[in-house]
Each structure stands twice: as C-alpha cells, then as structure tokens.
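Hi there, hope your week has been kind to you so far. Thanks so much in advance, here it is.
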Amino acid sequence: MELTGEQKSIQKKYKSIEKEIKVKRILIYLALISLSIVFIFPFLWMLFTAFKPENEAMAFPPRLLPRVWDLENFGEVFQIVPFATFYKNSIIVAGLGTLGTVLSSSLVAYGFARIKATGRGVWFALLMSTLMLPPQVTMIPVYIIWSRLGFVDSLVPLIVPAFLGNSYYIFLLRQFFRTIPKEVEESAYLDGANTFQIYWKLILPMSRAAIITVTLLSFMGFWNDFMNPLIYLHSVENYTLAIGVMQFQGALTVYWGPMMAASTLMLIPLVIIFFTGQKHFVEGIATQGNKG
C-alpha cells in the first residue's frame, strides 16, 4: 500500500524526531562518561599508586599503572604509624556517633512529625535556622566547654554531641515520618500501645529506607571527619584515620606509597557499607521531602 503525501510527511517528521532524540541521548551519555572519568581518575591514581614502589610513585613522567605490582606499601602502613589504633578509634567514633545520631535524630523527628504541642512549628523553625549557622561560629565556645570539662584529647567530644541530634537528619526523618498514614498509629493506640512503643516498634521499622539513608550519611560523615579530630585530639594514640594518614607526611619526606595504601584501606568500609545499603539509600533519598 502506497503512502499518501501527508503520511510520508508524518513518517519523515517522526524519523527526524527519533534521530534527534538518539543524538541527544548519545551526547548525554558522552558527557556522563567524560564526567565519570574525571571523578574516578583520582581514585584510580590512589589505588594504583598504593601498589607502586616508592621510586616508581615519584617517577616522572608519571605513569598510571605500576610496572611492578608491590604489596610492600600495605605492610609499611602498619610499621610507620600505629595504623591499627587509628582504625580502632575511627570505628569507635563512627559506630557510636552513627548510633547516637540515628537514635536522637529519629526520636526528635518523630516528635516534630506526630506529637501535637504548643509552638511546635516555632521550635522546628528555630531548629532549622541552626542549619544556617556556620560551624566556625560555635567552634571556639564548644572547645572551651569541653576543655573545662576535661575531655580534650579524648574521643568523648567526637561522640557525645551525636546523641544530641542533628538538624539536617531530623528534617529528613521528619519529612519521611509525615508520609506514614496516621491510621496506622491510631490502630496501635487502640491496641494499647503508648507513644514510645509506636515510635520504636512501628514507625522505625516502617521507615527502614530513611533510617538506612541517615545511617549511611552519618557514618560517612564521622568516618571522614577531619576538623573535629584535628581540634580535640593531641595524642597520637587517640588519632582517627582522617588525621592519622597525615603522619605519612614528614618534615623532609612524604611516604607516597604507604600514604596511598592507607587511604585505600580507609575507603574499604565506606565502599562496603554504601554498596550494601545502596538500594535503600536511593529509595530513602527519593521518598524524603514528598510531604511538607
């Protein structure tokens, strides 16, 4: 059956649009691939340098792949500095800090989302206003407080504030809690549950994606935190990984191979945790903020 002139025109226009869409898609993919290479290159450089001998790590012109794959740098990491101690301190700080952040932030968020009280909106607005306060403003007063309490040069100033809540995570969890139907809580009240039981046994399990999202973000924040350990920790045996890695940089030399090996070992927990909870992390980010 021969197409009419109008049908041929429509078909030609359709093919033109289809071709334009394909070209745009190819350009988008090329842009994404280019950006991915830019962002992943420093990670690859760190990873491959960790397997290079010291002379090859400093070679010029630089070479991405090592000529000789050497595991000696990973052994020297534990010989040059007490790396195992740094790892232990980071696990303690990140673990307890994340636990405190999730518990305190979720409890406060539940109060703001569900419990009716006079001035609740005002208090929430006041809480959100603290997000606009630069940490440099409170850095010195908070340091003076911890100093007078006698907790400087210990892990306490890095852990205890986490149990007092985090404004950003409170906001994220509050938004998620508001998406949960109130009928669920009303049914629990009729069954004799109190407010804390509803929060602990009902709301938290139903908010698994949001809780995992906050857990991942919080853990990464504590694990990579550099400023607070630098301010409060003075003794090498109390160092976390973030400032412990600096010990590979001496006054006269820099141990590039061991430093890159230490950085690679430092990244392992983050990679494992992120890919383990990636599905819930994406789901939590996508669903938060659906209800204002």
User: Anything to note?
Assistant: DSSP finds 15 helices and no strands in the chain. The first helix runs from residue 5 to 49. The chain has two domains: 5-49, 72-287.
